[in-house]
Design goal:
This protein is an alpha/beta fold. It contains 13 helices and 9 strands. Strands 3-2-1-4-5-9-6 form a 7-stranded mixed β-sheet, with helices on both faces. It has a two-stranded antiparallel sheet with strand order 7-8. Helix 4 links the parallel strand 2 (54-58) and strand 3. The structure holds S-adenosylmethionine.
Length: 248
């Protein structure tokens, strides 16, 4: 299934749990520098679009486009791999939590580089050694996530395709945007169906793996086993879970 079709089927409740996390937005907006005209690629419902700049959004999913709030930046139906804009049309292009969905991420990043003088991407480094073990949810409950990354380019390959530098982004314990890793210190949240429906990973691993993971997490929370295994997280206010900014 193409990613636009995936979001047409799973995106209907996206805004229940997904919204701009101000501390991550501050990092993205700082990386945009003094850019005035911004292209937001894989823009979804409009999270992270800077309110004080001239933004144009690109989003292939009709369901996602239809949930953009009144007054949001205008949005074009297109994909990253084939941006319908002339070279250097924008001061900057940004993409947030989207690159891992693109059919050809390297082509999409090169397109962003072509149409904009600056590129800022928020994504995760899923190829780093030990990544799967870093987050308890994938390590102990949902190892199937690793299969979703098979054949995908590494962060190093993505960065070198556009000559980007990378910066780590720590996830605050009370992250407002409910992406996959957001609830690392609030494990009960993953038992909530509406939290899971806001994250494509759960749809992609399938209902059997999802139900098994939820049952097993629920048991471990009730027995105290989760707390025992993860007590080192209790004192952390932010966690390094492989989230990165690419800046070119
Ligand atoms: C997890 S959502 C992120 C949306 C938004 N950027 C945010 O931060 O909430 C991923 C988005 O990427 C879009 N997408 C999937 N494939 C794409 C492609 N090839 N080009 C551009 N966007 C794509 C999806 O339709 C979806 O809206």
């Amino acid at each position: 299934m193409s990613s636009a079709r995936l979001y047409d089927s799973i995106g209907t409740t996206y805004t229940v749990t997904r919204r701009t996390e101000p501390r991550i937005a501050a990092r993205i907006w700082a990386a945009l520098g003094d850019a005035r005209s911004i292209l937001n690629v894989g823009a979804g419902t409009g999270s992270y679009e800077p309110p004080d700049r001239d933004v144009l959004a690109v989003e292939p999913s009709e369901v996602m486009r239809s949930q953009r709030p009144a007054g949001a930046a205008p949005c074009v139906a297109a994909v990253a791999e084939n941006l319908p804009f002339a070279d250097e049309s924008f001061d900057a292009a940004m993409a947030v939590a989207s690159v891992h969905h693109w059919q050809d991420p390297i082509a999409g990043l090169r397109e962003m580089r072509r149409v904009a003088r600056r590129v800022v991407v928020f994504t995760h480094d899923s190829s780093a050694a030990g990544w799967r073990l870093r987050f308890w949810l994938t390590r102990d409950y949902l190892p199937e996530v690793a299969n979703l990354m098979d054949g995908r380019p590494s962060l190093t390959e993505l960065a070198s395709a556009i000559g980007a530098r990378t910066e780590p982004v720590l996830i605050p314990w009370d992250c407002a945007d409910g992406f996959f890793e957001a609830y690392w210190r609030r494990p009960e949240a993953y038992l909530d169906e509406s939290v899971r429906r806001g994250v494509s990973v759960w749809a992609r691993v399938g209902p059997d793996a999802e139900q098994r993971a939820v049952r097993s997490l629920s048991d471990d929370l009730a027995s105290g086993r989760w707390a025992e295994r993860n007590r080192d997280l209790f004192d952390l206010d932010a966690a390094e879970l492989g989230l990165r900014l690419l800046i070119a």
